[in-house]
Known about the structure:
Chain A is α+β, with helices and mostly antiparallel strands. Chain A contains 17 helices and eleven strands. In chain B, a hairpin with a 2-residue loop joins strand 5 (about 75-80) and strand 6 (about 80). Chain A: One of its GO terms (molecular function) is metal ion binding.
Amino acid sequence: MLRLGVLLGLAMSVAVPVRAETPDPVTTFSLDNGMEVVVIEDHRAPAVVHMVWYKAGAADEQPGASGVAHFLEHLLFKGTDTLEPGEFSATVAANGGTDNAFTSYDQTAYFQRVAADRLGLMMQMEADRMLNIRLGPDDILTERDVIIEERNQRVENDPAALFREQTRAALYLNHPYGTPVIGWKHEMEALDLDDALSFYRTHYAPNNAVLVVAGDVTPEEVRRLAEEHYAPLPPNPALGERVRPQEPVQMAERRLSFRDPRVAQPYVIRSYLAPERDSGAQEKAAALTLLAEVLGGGQTSVMTQKLQFETQKAVYTSAFYSGVSLDDTSFGLVIVPAPGVTLEEAEAAMDATLAEFLETGVDPEQLERIKFQIRAQQIYGRDDAGSLARRYGRALTEGLTVEDVQAWPEILDAVTGEDIIAAAREVFDRDRSVTGYLMNTETAEVTQ
Amino acid sequence: MMMRLILSCALALTALTAQAEIDIQEVESPGGFKAWLVEEPSIPFVALELRFKGGGSLDLPGKRGATNLMVGLLEEGAGEMSARDFAAARESIAARIGYDLGDDSVRISATFLTETQDEAVELLRASLVEPRFDADAIERVRRQVLSSVRSDATDPNEIVSAAFDRMVFGDHPYGSSLDGTLESVAALSREDLVTAHRNAIAQDRVYVAAAGDISAEELGALMDRLLSDLPETGASMPERVEVETEAGVTVVPFETPQSVAIFGHEGLPRDHPDFFTAYVLNEMLGAGGFESRLMDEVREKRGLTYGVYSYLVPKDHAELYLGRVASANDRIAEAIEVIRAEWRKMAEEGATQEELEAAKTYLTGAYPLRFDGNRPIARILVGMQMDDLSPDYVTTRNAQIEAVTLEDVKRVAGELLKPDALHFVVVGQPEGLESTLGQ
């Protein structure tokens, strides 16, 4: 396989590794103010990853203020009552560490990687900016320019990214997952201090946060430091349930064509609305996770074999599903047609492959190989404490529990070929789907 | 089987006050292959890194892209196995093998479980020693490469790299994409791939590192099995190329809202006595942290970009000092003006003691944190060998950073930073910028 995943800008969503869990030394507890704590021990290197995850992301924004969750994430580096703008990162760097943050639909996370004995200092600063940021009008304007340049870089300069935004907006009729995390450009340009502070005061509080520490630490040490730095923070008593507008019954297939002169390689993406992993009920999501592997996970997968090896209708195919989501997620299929194959022909070939797969069922040998890889992942995964930290932090801000995360490998292992086919039949409903064609301005509908 | 352990040195990495030990063994196999090893038996798997020096720059004249297509085909059928058989075998033992190509090396990264180590080594060996280059696989992978080449032609990030490389390196292999062109890739024959394989994958250019659940004896046997049947010698290395640039701008018109720029001039070889000083200098100028001057001036103070970076590029046959920035078409001219001014200011005045101390604490503190898993350790170890460093580098490296003085920085800034050679290649529709003459 060559670098087409990256080429299509799908690397993050296509390469859905089969996530599996280990019987790791994971310890959890809560502070009296409601802050949850997860400790993952790995004593091989004298380092820790310190992460604070907020159960608030782009899907929690007020209508009309898209991008404010991400904007606020940038502004949290701008100073507090006791830290000058930029001093947070400068202090981390002066201690030999690195720091960053990211925003998704369902969470915002801040993290530092430092020597283990600097953990207390990280907690002190992170606790400070949970409640005490101080922002001036200049910070707002300059940083708004920065996020607009970020959007330019990630989206406006990349027709595939624009296409994904349009596809997503069509998939979700009512849920805020249809709005891009970085925000619609016209709304980003109008974001102001009040928008940012309103989001901050509503969502940033210890009872809406999860602390994850991974690395060369003991749970006792983390508890002692967390009691010192985070426990004194007052919870927000007004914190409400995370309720977003949900999808209505979807009754009509959506199709869209996106044309841009910068498109050199046209392709087809189909996205179906799909259920997510729910606490205590992850079986269907497990079947869909394996379905994505069976269809598109590597060289022996169904789509690759049929469409790239046998019929040679495609230069690249993929299937992707990420079950970790608070609300309805999506199951996606991609086909990049071979030269001389139109997008219609490619789509038809893909649908024929799916239909044949539903009739034939899952190859038991392929399923066994996939399951062995899942078991191996539990071993490989122990090499990367930071990755484990992200897995727990993400799950715990998506409505899952530590128990759900730890049960996941076994649930995956128990999935049968019949389960996979049943999940496929349920999800592959065109009335709950969007089919998008990405095309060059010159691409004719019927010939490519 | 006798194993010769040349040296085993235990190194204490000091992360401020925290401690971790990394014990690098130099291993030589009965067959004479050398490797560096960190034994770490607590997780039952092995991370193995192989590098073959030469890489994409070994393409023969008129055969641009041959090495790339060859590397793409290593996992597409080998020995008795078809592409599908090979993939199924690899999946059935949950081994991961990545084949990748750079300008100066073929990079192979493998991770495999201790329990399936022998099978993994057989697969890896087959792909290196007996790739089949079946006709159907060649066509399949060729189509993927061509698709990638077509896409790169309308991707501003790729266009800007290609334009800068062409300007600086011309007809040298560094001057064009190692993927090849639509024409050159279309014309490659099976024989070209066999030649590329023989030229690039040979014993005289291999570097090996491993970390994880494997002993020195086992690693020795593994190397002999893996490498003994490869040709002893490959193709000769490409020639050195001197970098010459002029201050100025080259605009490559492309309809897109944000202009993307690469800027730079001649750099410094990895083994130059001033390399450490240059590395520390770059940390202060533009390595990308929010503390660097470029990030502070262009992003933090003016909001002109999401990211601006500079970096030393010591290739095997040329050296560059490069930077990157992207700004909206109506703001890129200002970003470039600020970068030019900072480049000149640092060249003329050097840095402050405060900046130097901050850079040193960051660099020395961050270094031990890199060794945080078998996979990163194996990658670091193979890279050190390719840079001709000794195992005790991991203990001396921070002292070398600490030894850099403000006077060193000022002198090297004056020599390394060349405002009068700093050239910008800009892809987009930049307002207020036009190509200067000469380049």
